[in-house]
């Protein structure tokens, strides 16, 4: 059985009001919007790609992040680094969390990563309760880099970057992308780049083309893999 045939793949990407889910199941392509991960993954699936860190270290250092940064150089801002469970388990304020990080000799957490905390912890809890499910961390920019034959892409916020990503998705058979952006997305709170990113991680789940690091992934203290798929 090939990666594309017989695989019911789902891509998940967070947005302000919840999660975007893209289903790829043979000729079936569907997009939906959900309040939480449990709702988004309540239907049957074989494999999920999700644009959120899976597996965390106490100091926030992960080899997969460093390898992703190297692949995406010089666009290092496209990778969020420094996820640590204790940040959100022990603190509700980023300034206090950063003072503790400094006390521990660790890097500060960025505001962007801090605000992803609730979704990171939501996914972390789900994975620890559903260890047998095939749910993998995927990075949309690594997927788009692969689809663009290793050539860096313009910013996804630019008109050129949006146009190129849509072209690459259509080339991969995502025939509904224009309708999803123009119709289904409207009124949900999801942005264009949320939908584009989610299509990319759905492709990563469908194709299983590569990952960093390669081979057996290192695992965190709870046994979760620290590996990013593309």
Strand content: 5-15%
Whole-number average pLDDT? Answer: 95
Helix and strand sequence: EEEHEHHHHEHHHHEE
Q: Determine the number of helices (DSSP H or I, runs of at least 4 residues).
A: 9
Instruction: Please mark out the parts with pLDDT under 50 across 5 or more consecutive residues, or reply none.
Output: none
Cα radius of gyration in angstroms: 17 Å
Structural class: alpha/beta
Alpha-carbon distance between the two ends:
20 Å
* C-alpha geometry: globular
Largest sheet: 7 strands, mixed
Percent helix among the residues?
40-55%
β-strand number: 7
Strand order of the largest sheet: 3-2-1-4-5-7-6
Count of individual domains = 1
Architecture overview:
The chain has 230 residues and is of the alpha/beta class. The chain has one domain. The protein is 41% helix and 15% strand. It contains nine helices and seven strands. The protein has a seven-stranded mixed beta sheet. The radius of gyration is 17 Å and the shape is globular. The chain starts with 8 loop residues before the first strand and ends with a strand. The model has no long low-confidence stretch (mean pLDDT 95).
Q: Summary?
A:
With 230 residues, this protein is α/β, with parallel strands linked by helices. 41% of the residues lie in helices and 15% in strands. A 7-stranded mixed beta sheet has the order 3-2-1-4-5-7-6.
Task: Give the secondary structure arrangement, pairings included.
Layout: E1 9-15, E2 18-25, E3 28-34, H1 37-40, E4 47-50, H2 63-72, H3 85-90, H4 94-103, H5 111-129, E5 135-138, H6 140-147, H7 159-171, H8 177-184, H9 192-207, E6 211-212, E7 228-229
Parallel strand pairs: 1-4, 4-5, 5-7
Antiparallel strand pairs: 1-2, 2-3, 6-7
């Amino acid at each position: 059985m090939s990666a594309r045939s017989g695989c019911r793949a789902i891509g998940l990407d967070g947005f302000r009001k919840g999660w975007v889910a893209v289903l790829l199941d043979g000729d079936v392509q569907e997009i939906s919007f959900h309040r939480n991960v449990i709702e988004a993954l309540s239907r049957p699936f074989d494999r999920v790609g999700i644009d959120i860190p899976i597996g965390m270290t106490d100091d926030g250092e992960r080899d997969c992040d460093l390898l992703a940064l190297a692949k995406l150089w010089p666009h290092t801002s496209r990778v969020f680094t420094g996820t640590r469970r204790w940040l959100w388990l022990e603190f509700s304020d980023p300034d206090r969390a950063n003072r503790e990080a400094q006390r521990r000799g660790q890097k500060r957490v960025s505001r962007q990563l801090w605000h992803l905390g609730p979704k990171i912890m939501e996914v972390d809890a789900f994975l620890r309760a559903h260890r047998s499910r095939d749910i993998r961390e995927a990075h949309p920019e690594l997927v788009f880099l692969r689809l663009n034959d290793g050539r860096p892409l313009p910013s996804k916020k630019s008109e050129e970057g949006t146009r190129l990503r849509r072209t690459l998705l259509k080339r991969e058979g995502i025939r509904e992308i224009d309708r999803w952006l123009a119709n289904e997305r409207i009124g949900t709170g999801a942005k264009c780049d949320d939908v584009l990113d989610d299509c990319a991680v759905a492709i990563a789940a469908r194709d299983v083309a590569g990952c960093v690091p390669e081979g057996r992934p290192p695992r965190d203290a709870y046994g979760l893999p620290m590996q990013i798929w593309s």
